[in-house]
Amino acid sequence: MKRFILSSLLILSALLSQAQESSCGTELTAEHYKNLVELAGNARRIAAMRSGSIKIPVKVHIVQNEDGYSGLSIDDIIVEFDKLNDLFSGADMEFYLSSEVDYVKDGAFYDFNQNEEARLAASRDEPNALNIYFVGSITNKQGNEICGYTYYPEAGRDRIFVAGGCLKNSSTLAHEIGHYFSLIHTHGISGIDPEAVNGKNCEKAGDLICDTPADPNLLGKVDGNCNYTAHDRDANGDAYDPDTRNIMSYAPSYCRSEFSYEQFEVMTASYLANKNYLVANENYSPIADFVSSVRFNDEVSNKLQIKVYANPGADQLGVEILDGLEGEFRVQVFNIMGNLVYEQSMDTYNQGNKMILDLSANVSGVYFVNVVGKGRHASEKVMLM
């Protein structure tokens, strides 16, 4: 007989989000690479010109489908920005949020195609702010599904697009902000000499940053414990020893958790050289104000109140919707790798607000119970013993 251990979650874990992760869609131009050579070479001098902390104003746009469902609440976003502020403290940057969230209830943009960007964003962009659009999914111009994309400074666009399922891995948004402030991938780009393992060409090859180790492109080369598993060698025959924790790498999202010191210098220099018009004013507030504001959270949250409990004497779970809402809901169970192992509809109007889930066919481990409907959602983590 299996046993269940339950604990409430505000968000799905980063491991669940891993299954939804695709590649980065930010496109590097020859113009930016040329400018980055100069910026990286002078980053320390430019960064030293900073006076005081950098307060970045952010306008949040949340795209919903026709039912008002976005897959995210503002609470989810606040949690991630709280993490971002910790991460970007190394560049003495802090993100401030506008108190007016832009909710876009338009199913045509929920599953977002990059070709539709102008139609969605041109009239919604907040001037002199970093506009971040959270959508259901993103398909790029080549027809591939991606996690997010943005623009380098030369484009003159203050926009980042993030697929909702990728926000919760806690590295996609940071990765795209890194691009926004001029960083490129740690493995560099095709057509440019790769960085040698000995680092002797680090100022003109790879990512142009010398304190990030040479990177052969980590996509598919890192295991579940964040260990580099390939045996690539550079042109000199030296074995790579890349940093699988770097935010700008192609390691799995759950591995990426840090920038290097020189990456912080380049981002600071990029702000001073290219984005110094981004200054939070009285219309933007620090994240701590939102965390402590019950009124704000209550007004914009779309959390669904549920209860998940073990059914005594059987390998079953009970799910109960506590909000008194009537209608159609989807009840899903994912394993820790993000694979859907159980799904069933729940009609509270005709069948009541309780349901029994039979998970006896599943092996022991961590699972996530997800309930979605009526423009709301909730998740709980389950340990199946």
Protein model, in words:
The structure is a single chain. This protein has 385 residues and is an alpha/beta fold. It is globular and about 65 Å long. The protein folds into two domains: 14-183 and 259-298, Collagenase (Catalytic Domain); 304-384, Immunoglobulin-like (Sandwich). The chain is built from twelve helices and 18 strands. 23% of the residues lie in helices and 27% in strands. Strand 14 (328-335) and strand 15 form a beta hairpin.
Output the radius of gyration.
22 Å
Q: In CATH terms, what is the architecture of the largest domain?
A: 3-Layer(aba) Sandwich
CATH topology of the largest domain: Collagenase (Catalytic Domain)
Uncertain spans, ≥5 residues at pLDDT below 50? 5-22, 294-301
| Number of continuous helical runs | 12
Mean pLDDT: 84
Morphology call:
globular
Number of domains: 2
CATH superfamily of the largest domain: Collagenase (Catalytic Domain)
Question: Helix/strand-derived class?
Answer: alpha/beta
Secondary structure: helix percent: 10-25%
How far apart are the first and last residues' alpha carbons, in Å? 9 Å
- What's the order of the H and E elements? EHEHHEHEEHEHEEEEHHHEHHEEEEHEEE
Oligomer: single chain
Question: Main sheet, how many strands, which sense, barrel?
Answer: 10 strands, mixed
CATH class of the largest domain: Alpha Beta
The number of strands is 18
| Residue fraction in strands | 25-35%
